[in-house]
Amino acid sequence: MTPTISVQQLSKTYEVPEREGGFSAAVRSFFKRKYKDVKAVQEVNFNIEQGEVVGFLGPNGAGKTTTLKMLSGLLHPTSGTANVLGFTPWELKNDYLRSMTLVMGQRNRLSWDIPAADSFLLNQAIYRIPDDEYKETYKELDELLELEPLMKKPVRNLSLGERMKCEIAVGLLHRPKVLFLDEPTIGLDITGQARIREFLQEYNKRTGATIILTSHYMADVTALCERIIIIHHGQLKYDGGINDLSKKIAPFKLIGVLMENADAHDLSQYGEPVENMEDADKKFIQVKADEVTRITSRLLADLPIRDITIADPPIEDVIEQAFNA
Amino acid sequence: MFLIFKRLWQVNWAEQWQYRANLLMYLLYWLVSPIIYLAVWTSIATANGDVKGFTANDFITYYMVLLICDQVTSNIVIHTFGYKIQDGSLSGELIKPIHPMLTNALVNNVAFKILTMFGLTPIWIILFFLFQPDFSSVTLTGILLAIPAMMLAFLIGYFQSAAITALAFWTTRVYSIHEFYFALILLFSGQFVPLPLMPQLIQDIAQYLPFQLMLYYPIQLILGNLSTEQIIQGYVMTGVWLVISWLIFNWVWRKGVKKYSAVGA
Ligand SMILES: Nc1ncnc2c1ncn2[C@@H]1O[C@H](COP(=O)(O)OP(=O)(O)OP(=O)(O)O)[C@@H](O)[C@H]1O
Ligand SMILES: [Mg+2]
User: Fold this and answer.
1) N or C end of chain A, less CB within 10 A?
2) What domains can be seen in chain A, in order of their start residue?
3) pLDDT at B157 (0 to 100)
4) How many domains, chain B?
5) What is the mean pLDDT of residues B36-62?
6) Could you tell me if B163 and B77 are in contact, meaning their C-beta atoms sit under 8 angstroms apart?
7) What is the best residue among A10, A11, A14, A67 to mutate for testing ligand 1's pocket, by most ligand atoms within 8 Å of CB?
8) Within a domain: residue B9?
C-alpha cells in the first residue's frame, strides 16, 4: 500500500527582497532588487499512512507552516516532490482540493462581513455536499463545538476562540480525508482546546482521516499524536513515536529527592540540577538513564533522604532538547 | 454549479450591501467626469451650432448612454482582489475547488454593478429631465444588439484587469500599472470625447484596440449610428479580443499562482 502522504527531498527557499535604509539604497533597489534567500524547508522526507495523527513540531520559524502550505498546494516547492492521496498538491486539482483541508489561523474560509452561517452554506455548495450529508455533519460539529449560537453573528464580531471554532468547522464540512491543521487550538481557552482535541480524536477514529497538526501546546500533541516529526531550521530532526523520543534524543531521567535541611546539600556532584519543577519541596537532578541505579543508591547512602522519585523528563523539555540537538 | 453561483451571489450581495454608503460615494465620484464632459461639450455645441458635425443633442445622448455602458462594461477587480494576493488572504480561496477569479470575484463585480445601478438610475432620470435628450434614433434592435456586445466587452475588460491584478503575484506596483491601463481606456474608448473628435492618429490606433468595444461601439449601437457592416466588424473584434484577453489572463494567472508566497499565519 502506498502511504497517504509521501514527501521526498521537499525544499522551499523564499526570496525575500532586501531593503536597506537610506535614500541611495532605495534608489539602487529600484533598479536592481537584492534578494536574500530564506531556506525555510530543506530536503525533508517522510511518509504518513492513512489514519495516522502526526504532530509536527519545531520552534518559531522552523518551517512547519511552510511545509503544510506546500502539502495543501498553496505553495510551490523550490525542489522535491510530495504525493498526497495520489495527487501532487500544488497542481491544485479539484479532486484533491475536495478531499483535504487546511485550517490555518484566522480569516481563512469565513468571510469577515457576513454571518458564519452564510459562509457555511456557500462552502456546502462549493464542495457539492448533498443536503442530508451536510445536515448530519453540521449536527456533529455543532454538538462538539457548540456552533449554533455563533452562526448568526457577523464573523468580525466573534471572539478569537469562537472564530477558530467556526474556521475548523467550516473546514471539515466536506469531510476531508486529509487534514492539515496549523495551530488549531491557538487562542482557545483550556476547555476550548480540550473540545477541539476531543473532536479531532473522534473525527480521526470515525472517519479514518489522516491528520498532521502543528501546535505549540504540548497537551495537544500528547493527547492526539502517537507519532511526532520535529523540524528545526527547515531540517528534519526526529520522526518517530512520541514515547521513543526521550529514549533517542534525551536518554535522561529525573531524580527528585526530599530531604531534611535540603539547602545544606549540594546535589550537583550527582547530576545536573534542574530548576522549577512542579513539586517545589523536592530538589531535582537530571542523570543519564543508564546511571540511574548507581546514582540513586549513592544518594540514598550519602544523604538524609525522606522520599525519592524517578521519572521521565517532561515532554516539553525533551522536545526542547531535540530542537537544539 | 448553479447552486454555487446562487450562494456566491447571496454572500457577495450581503457583503456589498454592508458597504452601500461607500458605494454611493464611489458612484458619485465616478459620475463627476462624464457629467462635466457632457455639460462642457453641450454648451460648446450650443454656442457654435455644432462641433465637427456633432450637435448638442449628439453630445447629450452620447454621454447619457455612456453612463450606462460604462456602468455595465467596467469592473473593480483590481480593488477587490489585488490586496488578497499581497496580504495572503487569497490562501483560503486558492485551495477551494473553484477558480477564485472566475467565480467569487466575478460574482462580486456583478453584485457591485447591480447595486450601483440602483444608485445610478435616479441620477440618470434627473439628468434626463435636465438635458431633455432626443433619443429618437434609438431602436429596440440597437438595444438588443448592444446588450450582448456590452456583456462580452465587460468580460474583455474583466479578463484584462484580472490579468493586471494577477501581476500582484510578482510586484507590489500593480496599482500604478492599472492606472496606466485606465489611462489607455480613457484615451481610446471614447470616454473622454466621442472618438471621431480625437486626432486621426488616435482614431486609427483605437480601431484595433479593445477599448472602444467597451464604450464607443456599444454607444453607437444603441444610438443606431452603425451600418450592418460596422456592427458585424464590432462583434468580430469583440470575439477576437475576448479570446486574446482570456488567454493572457489564463497564462498570467497560472504563472502567478506558482509564484504565490501565501504570506501570513
Ligand atoms: N511568505 C514568506 N516569505 C518569505 N519568508 C517567509 C515566508 N513565510 C515564512 N517565511 C520564513 O520562512 C521560515 C519558516 O517559516 P514558517 O512560517 O514555516 O515557520 P513555522 O515553523 O510555521 O513557525 P511558527 O511556529 O512561528 O508558526 C521563517 O524564517 C520565516 O521567516
Ligand atoms: Mg507557523
Assistant:
1) N
2) 5-245 (3.40.50.300), 249-324 (3.30.70)
3) 97
4) 1
5) 91
6) no
7) A14
8) yes
d(C-alpha B30, C-alpha B185), whole Å: 14
- pLDDT < 50 stretches in chain A: none
Q: Where are the alpha helices (DSSP H) in chain B?
A: 2-18, 20-48, 56-73, 77-87, 91-94, 104-131, 140-166, 174-188, 200-206, 211-214, 216-223, 228-259
- Strands laid side by side in the A227-232 sheet: A100-104, A178-182, A210-214, A53-57, A227-232, A235-241
Which is more confident, B49 or A72?
Answer: A72
Judge whether A97 is closer than 8 Å to chain B, CB to CB.
yes
Contact A126 B261 (CB under 8 A): no
The residue whose CA has the least distance to atom 4 of ligand 1 is A14
Q: What is the pLDDT of residue A218?
A: 84
Cell representation of residue B192? 473622454
Nearest 10 degrees: Cα torsion A133, A135, A136, A140:
140
Ligand 1 touching residue A75 (CB < 6 A): no
Residue for grid cell 449560537:
A149
> Closest Cα to atom 8, ligand 1: which residue?
B263
B10: containing domain: 2-259
Q: A130-151 burial string, b = 16+ CB within 10 Å, else e?
A: eeeebeebbebbeebbebeebb
Please identify which residue in the block is written with the cell numbers 462583434: B235
Q: Which of A4, A62, A40 is nearest to A179 (CA)?
A: A4
Report the C-alpha dihedral over residues B2, B4, B5, B10, rounded to 10 degrees.
130
Is residue A263 classed exposed, middle or buried when 0-12, 13-18 and 19+ CB atoms within 10 A define those classes? exposed
Q: Is residue A49 packed enough to be buried (19+ CB in 10 Å), middle (13-18) or exposed (0-12)? A: middle
Please give the DSSP secondary-structure letter assigned to residue A108. S
- pTM (two decimals): 0.88
Assigned C-alpha cell, A210: 489522516
Residue B265 lies in a domain: no
Atom of ligand 1 nearest to the CA of A58: 21
Chain B residues touching residue A95 (CB < 8 angstroms)? 97
Placement of cell 488567454 in the chain: B247
